[in-house]
Amino acid sequence: MEPRRVAPVLGLCALLAADAVLISWAFRGPPAEDPALSTTRVATSSSPSVVSSAGGSTEPATAVRPATVTRFAAAVGLEQSWVVDAGTCAKPGTVWTTSDGGDSWSREDAPGRTVRAKPERVDRGFVTGGDRDCTLRLWQTGDAGRSWSGARSAAGAWSRVPSDDREVHVPSDQVRTPCGDADVLDLTTLDNLRAGVLCGNAEVRTTTDGGRTWVRAFTDKVALAIALAASGRGVVVRTEKGCAGVVAVALEDGQPSTRKSCVEVPPVEGKVSVATTGTAWWLVVGDVVLRSENAVGPWSRTGATLPSS
User: What is the dihedral of CA 46, 50, 51, 54, to 10 degrees?
Assistant: First the structure.
């Protein structure tokens, strides 16, 4: 190779290697928080227990268009979680909480159109969303949503922006468009620096610098929801031929792996979500809630379903 051609080639290789390192390390080493090679099949029995087996369903995948998530989980632990119905700025939604593994749920009104929830405990946490004017605000609760603080500034919080699905508010009190002109379908955060988004253009993008820059991790045209944990672990929920529900695919080093499980619950547009604490995983599919100690199951269906919003 001629010497004058070597530098550009080496530069391109270095750039590609740097991108790979950014993606692999996107979820390692925690700054402070902000305010198995097998496929299993999970049946849709009405019992809280599930039936799991190797292989997938022979039924075709349910056709559901990826959409902005409007019913989403926020995990606290294996026994505790929140599930939020976003609602609208004019008609706020609902916050559901459980402390018994989903055998029962308490329902409380959300204070605004809710686009992110961050529980510290089952009874304490905050939500971000839009007030009646769809201005981004933050509300706190110390009694599982029975009462909420007055609307406060969301300046230091990650949040989707209630008035524009393309935008994400970052902890430096800036607004970014991590997906460009595409909508942000789902947002998952780890701390003030690290987060990921599922984009309407099928890209999953991550940041390690508080949202100033975003790197494309991978592309999945049928992804419906995503959750990320430390050390590059996580799960992407998608539809897949051969599964009559949704498929939970484990992420390793920030990339989809071969470990996955078919959860035979028909998906509902905008109402598929997954959340994790790193040791507990919660999956919402329509009115059905499931939980697991691992990213790909086995998933246990909770004892109570949630009414349609």
Answer: 130
